Amino acid sequence: MDFQLVYSQIFIQLLLGLVSVIFAELVRDVYHLAGHYWKPLQSYHTLHHKAYRRDLSMTSLEMYKKAQWYNDVPEALVMVGSTALVAGLAQNYGMWLGCLYSLMFLIPAIARSQGLLLQTDLTHKPGDLVEIPSRWTVNRTYHWRHHFDQGNAYFCGYFTVVDKVLGTSLSLKGKVVAITGASGTLGQALMEELSLQGAKIVALTTSKDAQFKPGIEVLQWQLGAEADLMTRLKSVDILIVNHGVNVYGDRSPEAIQKSYEINTFSALKLAELFLSTVTESDHKAIKELWINTSEAEVNPALSPLYELSKRTLGDLITLRRLDAPCIIRKLILGPFKSQLNPYGVMSARWVSWAIVALAKRDFRNIIVTINPISYIAFPIKEFFQSLYFRLFTSAHTQVK
Q1: pLDDT (tens digit, 9 = 90+) per residue, 109-163?
Q2: Residues 136, 159: contact at Cβ < 8 Å?
Q3: CA dihedral defined by 228, 234, 238, 244, rounded to 10 degrees?
Q4: Residues whose CB is less than 8 angstroms from the CB of residue 32 and which lie 6 or more positions away in sequence, other chains included
Q5: Rounded to whole angstroms, what are the CA distances from 143 to 20, 99, 118, 168?
Q6: Can you give the residue range of the structural domain that contains 119?
């Protein structure tokens, strides 16, 4: 017997089985999308949304059973039928794994619809949210957003691939977004792009003479007085820390102080203030912190103090991410034309569009640059630095 051939066939069957499971999940996501946009299914899928309170507990047993029978059972039947059809056409044993996987949804759904199984699935388990939304798979917090943040987003059932492709991994509609450095070139462009997405903008500026479009809430603040913004930050959904300074070639003590005060310590103070507002269960799902740390984290910016201060901020945010109570996104931006960099080669308008497009696809490290090295160097740097911090730091250390 040729054992190498046997092992090869087993591997191929397992691989095909995995493909069939992924196909089953894609079928489920497409059916879910149809439940929102195809009228014959909309009323049935609405039952599913009506079956849960904000803490994901049942509104009533009868509503829950009805939702299972008219939404979950048909969805699982389509999964079973589609995977069985593909497996039959392929005439391959491994492909039947997707059909068996789909039956694991159909049988419990039938039981729940008849009141024989009251324990719900993991993504609808009632109680407070304890994790931030996961990135590649759907956890309770991720799916909670579909029910109570924005119904026309967060469609995926287990793998988040479809949401990433469609740009529905993050909904900005109705979100209150506060932006520091709002009077700057990128700040202005971000406000315009976010407004197009339906966000409500709060411009945070240290400039007394800055002009903003009508309808934008404007708050003045001063360096060193970040705590004065605390009251407003409590009701902000997304804080974008975007302010900064570039002293170019100046290496005087005053330039060092100014660079770190603005680029590092002020940004950190605002970040910590915002993270301290994550106090409710749903805050873990809705609130986000975006930090503009710059491509200077991994590449020269021909401005040493800008590099040093931004790199320090980036490193500390990497450390803070390990215990963050909400999503933190880094904005790793290459040279765009602005007041800080009149020699930039990208337009702020295009950069802001790319930032929002990538955020909606749940990129946690948003890299926008013309330098291909950054797309390789930054993820490697971030992975190993995060690993180093995990190995040699702890969340709670007793000080003697």
Answers
A1: 999 999 998 888 889 999 999 999 999 999 999 999 999 999 999 999 999 999 9
A2: yes
A3: 10
A4: 45, 75, 155, 156, 157
A5: 23, 24, 20, 12
A6: 3-166
Q: Specify whether 30 is located in the same domain as 126.
A: yes
Same domain, 31 and 162: yes
Catalytic residue among 31, 93, 306, 343: 306
Q: Are residues 144 and 213 in the same domain?
A: no
What is Dmax (Cα atoms) for the chain? 83
pLDDT of residue 92: 84
Establish whether 93 is a catalytic residue: no
Shared-domain flag, residues 195 and 144: no
Name the domain count of the chain. 2
Angle at 36 between CA 30 and CA 37, to 5 degrees: 85
Tell me the backbone φ, ψ of residue 237, rounded to 5 degrees.
-85, -45
Q: 131 and 225: one domain?
A: no
Mark which of 137, 166, 195 sits at the end of a domain.
166
The answer to whether the beta carbons of residues 33 and 161 sit under 8 Å apart is no
Write down the mean pLDDT value for the chain: 93
Residue 329 DSSP class? E
226 and 276 Cβ atoms separated by less than 8 Å: no
Could you tell me if 157 and 227 lie in one domain? no
**Shared-domain flag, residues 238 and 348:** yes
Q: Categorise residue 289: left if φ over 0, alpha if ψ from -120 to 50, beta otherwise.
A: beta
